[in-house]
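Internal ticket - ligand job 383, alpha-D-galactopyranose:
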Amino acid sequence: MIEAFRKLYGSAEGVRVFRAPGRVNLIGEHTDYNLGFVLPVALELATTIATAPSGDGKLRIYSEERQELREFDITAIPTLAPTHDWTDYPIGVAQQLIAAGVSIAPANLLIRSTVPEGSGLSSSAALEVSSALAFLNGRAFDKLQLVTLCQRAERNFVGVPVGIMDQYISVFGRKHSAVEIDCRSLNHRLVQLPGGITFVAVNTMVKHALSGSAYRDRVRECAEAVELIAKVYPNVKSLRDVTPEQFETVAARLPEVVARRARHVVTENARVNRYTDASQRGDLALMGKLMVESHRSLQYDYEVSCAELDFLVDTALPMAGVLGSRMTGGGFGGCTVTLLRADAAPAFRDAISQAYKQKFDVTPAIYPCDPSDGASEITAGQL
Ligand code: GLA
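stdout (structure tokens):
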């Protein structure tokens, strides 16, 4: 990476390298903006940024993936408007840092990423968090503040009303562990995963156009549910506050679609808690069952799945060694995550790949999901 940097900018003097991982969410989908629970793991797939001072008042950002170089006057950054392309992520983050009192120094950046875009593995958050670390360039900064700042960049500048999960896990991920995040208190705890199993992500290779607008619709429908449920239970401030039992008492008063959206969130939150318990007890059968319930709930109640995701789940479930499978991330394409016995993984990869190719004439990319550490600087020895 240093060589690529030198080639691009003519010198690699003072270069430092920062990495932020993508994630796969094991369970707890569309619960984060409802202030509930999620259980992601940080992946080895990551966005890496090399940065060195530019000394000429400019910020240059090069994306290897796009093979595009963009140049900005440092003094213009605070007033830049979104351009609706990949630069909105780093620029949005730069503006948030400036708003938080952090100066952005003139610098050259080189971005390299192994997180596939549009795959539901959170390439956006990996880019935001790695950008933030590159702009900080080693200066100390509170980790939780970093998380919320990157989320604000995506909400306010990129313009998607995302929850906190992706940025949080990119910062707080931990090797060998899943991380249960309480999206209200913003605390987390590490969750031990049973031995002898593994998680595999299978990419549908599609991202349906609906994803952005449907995400906003779901956020709105959840807010509507809260407003209506609060008329009966005034203490309810978000769907997080609604127990499955309470929900049943009000379900009939909600418009049909709103009721199904709320039921997904309420039951999904309960599933996260049961799943973490099951994981710690090594109850593989229950973990698998909860993942499938989660998928069905996303498929029928929340309606964010699609034919390709459903096919991958339905095809995976009867395969040898598979314990559970579900869509992961926002939906409408992207990946499924499958829980299976580690020794069954090679045969599973071959079989699911073949079946998907036969059905959709596309070879799905497949990624191992071994939990990695959260964002940090990469030292010369690790490069
Ligand atoms: C996207 C968002 C997250 C979360 C998931 C769905 O990845 O960025 O905040 O809402 O969708 O669980």
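Auto-summary: The chain has two domains: 2-190+374-382, 192-368. DSSP finds eleven helices and 13 strands in the chain.
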